[in-house]
Amino acid sequence: MPRLHEKMESNERTPLIATVHVAPPRQRYQHSTVRRFCTIALCSTLLMATVFFLVPLAFLPGHRHHRQPLPSPHHSTTSIPYKELQAILLNEPKAEKAQEWSKYYTAGPHLAGKNYSQVLWTQERWEDFGIKAGIVAYDVYINYPLGHRLALYEKKKAKDSEASEWKVKFEASLEEDVLEEDPTTGLENRIPTFHGYSASGNVTAPYVYVNYGTYQDYEDLVNANVSLKGKIALAKYGGIFRGLKIKRAQDLGMIGAVLFTDPGDDGGVTEENGVGLYPDGPARNPSSVQRGSTQFLSVAPGDPTTPGYPSKPGVPRQPVDGSIPSIPSIPISYVDALPLLKALNGIGPAPKDLNKWWERNLGLKYKGVEYNVGPSPDDLVLNLVNEQEYVTTPLWNVIGVINGTLLDEVIVIGNHRDAWIAGGAGDPNSGSAALNEVIRSFGVALSKGWKPLRTIVFASWDGEEYGLIGSTEWVEEYLPWLSAANVAYVNVDVATVGPSFKAAASPLLNQALYDIVSKIPSPNQTISGQTVGDLWDHKISTMGSGSDFTAFQDFAGIPSIDMGFGPDPEAPGDTGGAVYQYHSNYDSFYWMNTYGDPGFHYHETMAKLWALFTAKLAETPVIPLNATDYALAIQGYISNVETKIDAAIAGTTTEESELEARGRPSPSAPIGSISKVKISFRKLHEAASSLLAAAINHDSWAAKLAEEAGEDIPWWKWFTKVKLYFHIRRANDKYKFLERQFLYKEGLDGRPWFKHVIFAPGLWTGYAGAVFPGLQESIDDRDFRNAKKWVGIIEGTIIKAAKSLK
Ligand SMILES: *[C@@H]1O[C@H](CO)[C@@H](O)[C@H](O)[C@H]1NC(C)=O
Ligand SMILES: *[C@@H]1O[C@H](CO)[C@@H](O)[C@H](O)[C@H]1NC(C)=O
Ligand SMILES: *[C@@H]1O[C@H](CO)[C@@H](O)[C@H](O)[C@H]1NC(C)=O
Ligand SMILES: *[C@@H]1O[C@H](CO)[C@@H](O)[C@H](O)[C@H]1NC(C)=O
Ligand SMILES: *[C@@H]1O[C@H](CO)[C@@H](O)[C@H](O)[C@H]1NC(C)=O
Ligand SMILES: *[C@@H]1O[C@H](CO)[C@@H](O)[C@H](O)[C@H]1NC(C)=O
Fold first, then answer.
1. Which residues participate in catalysis according to the annotation?
2. Does the C-beta of 526 come closer than 6 Å to ligand 5?
3. Which ligand does the CA of 704 lie closest to?
4. Mind listing the pLDDT tens digit for each residue in 608-661?
5. Which of 207, 317, 397, 631 could be stapled to 695 by a disulfide with Cβ–Cβ 3.0 to 4.6 Å?
6. Is 507 exposed, middle or buried (0-12, 13-18, 19+ CB in 10 A)?
7. In 3-state terms, what secondary structure has residue 562?
8. Fold of 627-805
9. Measured from the CA of 403, which atom of ligand 1 is nearest?
């Protein structure tokens, strides 16, 4: 694709935001000449004049309520009132429009780095909506599928002869059924089933069923003397990130891995329970296959050849050993898995011979599968072929910008565009459709004279599916600017594939979210007037990984949130929504319109929620972060870790901690003393109390400033106004930099890319969030000396955070 390449290079010199220069906080310059001094003095005077007389006027709402919007919004310092903006953002997003965008994105393949016309189309739509947008490209190392095969061979005695020969007993289709109702499934150029970052290979060997392929599942097999070396693993999806299943197989000397989806993990929405199969009903189509990345995500996301720096053309590349698998793997459907599983019936341990973890969610028992582990005898072998083409190729983020009055306070919002399949109506294009509606609505506000107070950046990321590549490389490239200016990042990946609202966030953003969900009407009101907030359990999870917020939150220390609507597996029967056939051909427009979100009302709701949330962050004069909530959350996390240590001493565990422990190695003999760690916990609590005190103080000062800013200040009290402006700017700086205080330059043990001491993806789960990862992992390893080191690091960052608020 040389022509595309040229295009991208000409674009890449002028990324919109690269021209926004913001000095990092507290940077000191060494000026040696008088001339330089004079230039600076002159500039400063001009700047001061502007800041003193124009910015405060634009900034404070007292002024904003009284002026009529000027006809030329981009160059005026006036704006429409916040209430009017909110009304636009609540009324403008339309289900029909979201449906139109969804139809476009799901019309053809858009794997990372593969569909430049979708990039241009996205940029053009945003420009049509009135937002300046550019394309930022990176050259990244990724794979595309060439071929695959999975066959079960049996050695049979040939008739009338002593010799025996190999016969194919079963040839897996590795294809999803083409459905008449669902045109996406029959596209000529649909994407084959494969794994991102999987290794090419052609292996033939006996195979072993390894349950979910967690660390402890493999340990159970080792303890049961099941031979693994030289065999192929057959693992169920679920529980932990798929790449980690393959990593452990590889570490144990296995030579290939086959991953299948078990309907036992679909809750109550199954054929076994009498629910119709897609397309006739909401249960999983038996041929559906989960594609997905097998990168070792919890070590570092992004381009594996450029850890920590942007994948610009010509940069040095690192070897990928240790960050992606070296053994071949392929994903299959349960239809293709059935003959392999059945062939193991009666061979090797059965689930009841192992432990309770092997007896969960056995969704194919009703089809005659006993779930014996094998290994298959030497005359029953699998041939697994995986052919991947590895290339270094451009991918493209679309970045839109609305400059605010303030250029050094920036809100970034984003969604990824790339999908594993031609469709991707849920993942990610329900989010892309909602994002277009958010941007279109902001465009309408601009046309009515709105100018945001803070700068807003919109991102359509590429390459998320392979390993959060587009967003990670972008954050790595713009780190100095983001560190200095970025107030928050708002991510929506899957906007909707079900009726139940879900969110994960830095606690700084909790209050802002509670406020906004109470303003958004629910698309499914059983009582008139119900909001999204009324139908939500108000549970905000801790940030793990698995989407584009990771580089913002865990690498750059920018408070982030991730939200969307999904199925509710706890709901009775199929009231929690249809089975979401993740990363399969059935995540299509037809599925979305029939089962996922008929009428696209949840798309519209998500666009309103996202837009209003962004507007709150961008428009409220005092940044609406809440430090008290962060301090309270930290106290809670400390108590949890303490409980965990107590449990480790007493040797007791909870169901939840046991489940989590299935993912990681058994602890070795303790290193260092538990009681010493216990003692230093007191210091952690003291640090957290001082942070809480400082946070309460800061929040109440900020609340007082917010109140003053809300009052009408007559023009002749301009000095009060200017003074208030500077106080608010000071308070806002403290909010802006609070999350950064929790970064630790050296990073986590063994994965230095992850800099945040409070949040990281679990090392052995990949997706789920771990709090105090350095400390928790030390305790899990029973390395109490290292735990003590982490207590010290954490205490240091908490004290630093408390000081930063004073
Ligand atoms: C935003 O402002 C910066 C600095 O003044 C400028 O360089 C940039 O072109 C502006 N971007 C847009 C999209 O207006
Ligand atoms: C790119 O995406 C568009 C819109 O979804 C689709 O129509 C087209 O077939 C895709 N192009 C390629 C080369 O896959
Ligand atoms: C895989 O290896 C076997 C044995 O060497 C060979 O016969 C077969 O042709 C290979 N398959 C492919 C697709 O390369
Ligand atoms: C596994 O083998 C070891 C050593 O040969 C033996 O002591 C142990 O009992 C075996 N365990 C099982 C579950 O067969
Ligand atoms: C709306 O909510 C009711 C009650 O929670 C539920 O039974 C119904 O299935 C929901 N409908 C949709 C379309 O989500
Ligand atoms: C900040 O959070 C605390 C604790 O949840 C709450 O009491 C307080 O009202 C919040 N302040 C604001 C301004 O939202």
1. 464, 675, 756
2. yes
3. 6
4. 999 999 999 999 999 999 999 999 999 999 998 888 777 766 766 666 677 777
5. 631
6. buried
7. strand
8. Transcription Elongation Factor S-II; Chain A (1.20.930)
9. 1
